Amino acid sequence: MQKFDFQEFVTALDAGQQAHLEWSRRILRCTVLRSFPDDDVMHNDAHHLCQFGQFLAQHLITFTSINAEQTQRLVTVHQQMHDTIRNLARPISQGLAGNIEDLEHFERCQAELIDHLAYFKTQAIYHYTQIDNLTGLPLRQRLIQEFRGQQQQCSGALALMFIDVDHFKSINDLYGHNMGDTVLQQLVLRIHDVLNIDQSMYRYGGEEFIIMLCAAQVKQAEALAELIRHTVYHTPIVHQDDATIQISVTIGVALARHQEPLVSVIERADKAMYYGKQHGRNRVINADHITLENKS
Ligand SMILES: Nc1nc2c(ncn2[C@@H]2O[C@H](COP(=O)(O)OP(=O)(O)OP(=O)(O)O)[C@@H](O)[C@H]2O)c(=O)[nH]1
């Protein structure tokens, strides 16, 4: 599972923008004082070598995942800024005035670059508020946004699994909160390994997770839930000195009815999960049938 630190991204974005503004200030001084800019400005690859260019290259996938078209424009505008500055600086180095068109082009590029960066920063912060820092999973808000679209796309029925870790408080009490955090991270990795690309997982609350998937029939969703339950139970989490912690999960499964609102589907899956808790935990319960699966 890919984890990404959006806070770091936003900080680096600010630093890159600041570096570029500082760089423009240096150019302005050269223009006024008729001095020649340093080699870093005149280098043909300056757009790759400058601080912002390096940041852009490192995070190109992130920029593209936010908005591919605008990323392409950002890359182009950034290179144009550097190209224009070289054009502007050449006559100055010969004691001549710079070209006004180059200067205006540079100013337009600079303004456009800043607009793009403001857009990407807003988007990055928006994404950041929807991703759980501990597990890297999208949060409840994202589930709310994606549910309706997913329901329309689904050719079969849309199923929700409500997953709750059993006796998680005892894990915190016995091993400490940090180990509890590690257990949640490891649990998510184990579950993620059995999911395919169309099955989305969300962190719903503390030790509660929701998986949304298209299922031809409820049996298909139940089979996946059972695989998750089995995998979690039979893959203990390694603690220090090779000691292991065995954990289990109780899962409620509900198939969304026609036009059923998300809150109602969650409520039914949650109730089924709660029923599983009351009947021994470490089991999968179908909301419609409230049947117990065998413990293994
Ligand atoms: N380490 C850690 N603990 C968390 C986190 N979020 C919630 N918790 C803890 O999870 C525990 C949940 O406990 P309970 O709701 O009592 O449930 P439980 O002990 O899992 O028992 P059952 O659900 O009945 O099997 C609480 O002690 C919370 O403090 C987290 O991000 N990290």
TrEMBL record:
- Top-rank lineage group of the source organism: Bacteria
Is Transferase one of the keywords? yes
- Molecular function as annotated in GO: diguanylate cyclase activity
Q: Where is the GGDEF domain?
A: 156-289
Against InterPro entries, the record matches this protein to: Diguanylate_Cyclase, GGDEF_dom, Nucleotide_cyclase, Rev_trsase/Diguanyl_cyclase
Q: Record's GO cellular component, any one?
A: plasma membrane
CDD domains with a match to the protein in the record: GGDEF (cd01949)
Question: Which top class of enzyme applies to this chain?
Answer: transferase
Matching NCBIfam families, A to Z? GGDEF (TIGR00254)
Protein name from the UniProt record: diguanylate cyclase
Q: Which organism is it from?
A: Marinomonas gallaica
What is this protein's gene name? ydeH
